[in-house]
């Protein structure tokens, strides 16, 4: 018997046809995600990198057409913005802000205070137990420069870390914590409120979404911290759920995720998915199978997120697999050398199943 019969050809052809029909992004032109988001009042956005924006027209075009909000992948981190104590460099960040303005897109600010992406001089200075101005001067300078153009700021990033085994699951290994204790968070939020009262002020957190014991601890640490901040009248207004989902590695539960979002909402805070991508380093070799698993997890995850009235939208951490940070991050790289398929568009800027499920999730909210 021939390996590929007419019958099997017909089956494959029908499958291909069905897939084409189910891929409205290709048929309907290029603004699909942005249009779908606009219809709902939710945002869809992407992280953007100035170094690619300036040289890759297709990438720039995709971002302009698909995203209603952008966030700088590196350009507004302190390492980029303040290379020396007395020197700021806004060039790369300005490139992205200008691009967003030209394309009628909102901007997120990421991030004022993080234990990572710190210039060397800052790590040294924190070691010397500096004054609050090391936080407040920076926030005031940056927030005021972009005031009126920023939808929301990640005021602090990744302040919980279970690996530190500290009370409240706080990231006590952070140079910020070592210098100030928990009060660095209060100082940062107050400074941000003063410098840009209209931006929504976020606490952005990592690994809060898994149905795993360690992730439950991160959720508990986050909620307990929010309670302490709110009690101290710290102007935290929203929680960023990074959502670097580990498609084949960690368990996910709609119910657990939904409850966490409700807990945040019950404190009067907004929620946004701020850095979604779906890692597939330990998935099967077959890209189709990986795409299916990624799309079905994203569907469950976003349907829960978008069912909440206090959810503002979803940002993916990049838009094309070509430039995903996962490809250059050892713990996310595939052993077989294939690139990850974690973002809506593939390396040739073609929409994948993830785009279809995202469109459907936005569509549910529109009704
Ligand atoms: C990542 C960038 O994507 C990489 O290019 C960079 O090398 C390291 O940082 N959580 C965050 C983001 O809040 O700022 C990180 O971005 C990814 C994890």
Can you describe what's shown?
45% of the residues lie in helices and 15% in strands. The protein is an alpha/beta fold. It has one domain: Glycosidases (TIM Barrel). It has an 8-stranded parallel β-barrel, surrounded by 6 helices. The relative contact order is 0.12. (3S,4R)-3-hydroxy-2-oxopiperidin-4-yl beta-D-xylopyranoside binds next to loops.
The poorly predicted ranges are 1-29
Annotation field: number of helices: 15
- How much strand content do the residues show? 5-15%
The distinct ligands, each listed once, are: (3S,4R)-3-hydroxy-2-oxopiperidin-4-yl beta-D-xylopyranoside
| DSSP strand count | 9
Query: Which term fits the overall shape?
Result: globular
The CATH topology is given as TIM Barrel
Which architecture name does CATH use?
A: Alpha-Beta Barrel
| Fourth CATH level, the homologous superfamily | Glycosidases
Cα-based radius of gyration, to the nearest Å: 21 Å
Helix/strand order, N-terminal first: HHHEHHEHHEHHEHHEHEEHEHEH
The largest sheet, given as strand count, sense and whether it forms a barrel, is: 8 strands, parallel, barrel
Strand order of the largest sheet: 1-2-3-4-5-6-8-9
Q: Percentage of helical residues?
A: 40-55%
Total of domains: 1
Oligomeric category: single chain
Structural class: alpha/beta
Under CATH at level 1, the class stands as Alpha Beta
Mean pLDDT: 93
Distance between the termini: 51 Å
């Amino acid at each position: 018997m021939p390996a590929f019969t007419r019958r099997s050809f017909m089956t494959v052809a029908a499958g291909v046809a069905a897939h084409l029909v189910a891929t409205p992004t290709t048929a309907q032109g290029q603004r699909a995600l942005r249009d779908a988001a606009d219809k709902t009042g939710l945002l869809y956005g992407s992280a953007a990198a100035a170094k690619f924006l300036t040289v890759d027209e297709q990438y720039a075009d995709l971002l302009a057409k698909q995203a209603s909000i952008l966030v700088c992948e590196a350009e507004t981190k302190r390492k980029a913005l303040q290379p020396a104590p007395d020197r700021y460099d806004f060039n790369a960040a300005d490139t992205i802000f200008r691009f967003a303005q030209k394309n009628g897109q909102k901007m997120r600010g990421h991030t004022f205070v993080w234990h990572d992406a710190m210039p060397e001089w800052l790590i040294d200075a924190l070691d010397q137990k500096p004054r609050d101005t090391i936080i407040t001067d920076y926030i005031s300078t940056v927030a005021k420069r972009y005031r009126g153009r920023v939808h929301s700021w990640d005021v602090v990033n990744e302040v919980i870390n279970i690996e530190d085994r500290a009370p409240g699951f706080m990231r006590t290994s952070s140079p910020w914590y070592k210098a100030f204790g928990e009060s660095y968070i209060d100082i940062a939020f107050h400074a941000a409120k003063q410098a840009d009262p209209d931006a929504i002020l976020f606490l952005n957190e990592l690994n809060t979404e898994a149905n795993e014991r360690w992730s439950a601890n991160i959720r508990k640490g986050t909620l307990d911290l929010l309670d302490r901040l709110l009690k101290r009248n710290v102007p935290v207004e929203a929680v960023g759920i990074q959502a670097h989902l580990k498609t084949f590695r960690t368990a996910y539960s709609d119910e657990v995720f939904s409850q966490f979002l409700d807990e945040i909402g019950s404190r009067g805070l907004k929620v946004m998915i701020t850095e979604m991508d779906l890692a597939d380093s330990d998935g099967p070799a077959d890209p189709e199978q990986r795409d299916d698993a990624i799309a079905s997890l994203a569907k469950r995850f976003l349907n829960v997120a978008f069912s909440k009235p206090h959810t503002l939208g979803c940002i993916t951490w990049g838009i094309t697999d070509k430039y995903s940070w996962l490809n250059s991050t050892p713990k996310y790289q595939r052993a077989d050398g294939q690139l990850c398929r974690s973002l809506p568009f593939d390396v040739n800027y073609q929409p994948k199943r993830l785009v279809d499920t995202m469109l459907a999730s936005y569509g549910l909210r529109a009704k």
